[in-house]
Amino acid sequence: MKRIALLFIALMFVVSTSNAQKGAMKVEPSLVLASSHSNTGMGFGANGTFFYGIDDNIDLTGTLGYITWSYDGWDGNLSTVPVLFGGRYSFGDQSGFTPYATAELGVHFMSFSFEYAGIPGFSAAETVSETSTEFGLGIGGGAYFNIGSLVIDANLEYNKMGESSYFAVRAGVVFAL
């Protein structure tokens, strides 16, 4: 809990010191495909990201999402609600294509459930579930694509949440506020 409080205080300091600069604000809803290193299948979800521009190349980010995986071969699932704060550094417009690097820190509110069918005559069916809050870290890169008046964002990010990790491919549309 102390880590979360320190992260929140550090983020508020960065945002308050950058408020003197007139930054552009944007939002991006995105779809997520996630591949875990465990025996889960492909994960699916959605994210919403808020951007606050520090200058032409740097954005502060805040991301809230939901991703869920089913386990291969048995009746269980894992889901996470990532709450992450970080930044993106854009490398400049390359004729409608702008590559960037990104890094985020925060927490993942995780939930696991498993349906145990039981053994007839010996044990009853039951549902086992557990929740946890894990520290999260994400690093990756992507690009903005200008298609007419639309700005499409596509990226690949490696995420570490506690002892688990996953790769996420995201695609969304960026809207200026």
Quick gist of this model?
Helix content is 10%, strand content 67%. It is built from one helix and eight strands, in the order H-E-E-E-E-E-E-E-E.
Strand content: over 45%
Instruction: Report the strand count.
Output: 8
Overall geometry comes to: elongated
SSE sequence, one letter per element: HEEEEEEEE
Number of helices: 1
Mean pLDDT: 85
Record the strand order, biggest sheet: 1-2-3-4-5-6-7-8
Helix percent band: under 10%
Question: Terminal Cα separation, in Å?
Answer: 33 Å
Low-pLDDT stretches are 4-9, 11-21
Helix/strand structural class: mainly beta
Radius of gyration: 19 Å
User: Which sheet architecture does the biggest sheet show?
Assistant: 8 strands, antiparallel, barrel
What's the arrangement of secondary structure elements?
Elements lengths: L1 H17 L6 E12 L6 E11 L4 E13 L5 E15 L6 E20 L9 E22 L2 E12 L2 E13 L1
Task: List descriptors.
67% strand; 177 residues; mainly beta
Give a description of the structure.
By secondary structure, this protein is mainly beta. It is built from one helix and eight strands. The chain has an eight-stranded antiparallel beta barrel. A hairpin with a 2-residue loop joins strand 7 and strand 8 (164-176). The protein is elongated, with a radius of gyration of 19 Å. 21% of the residues are buried.
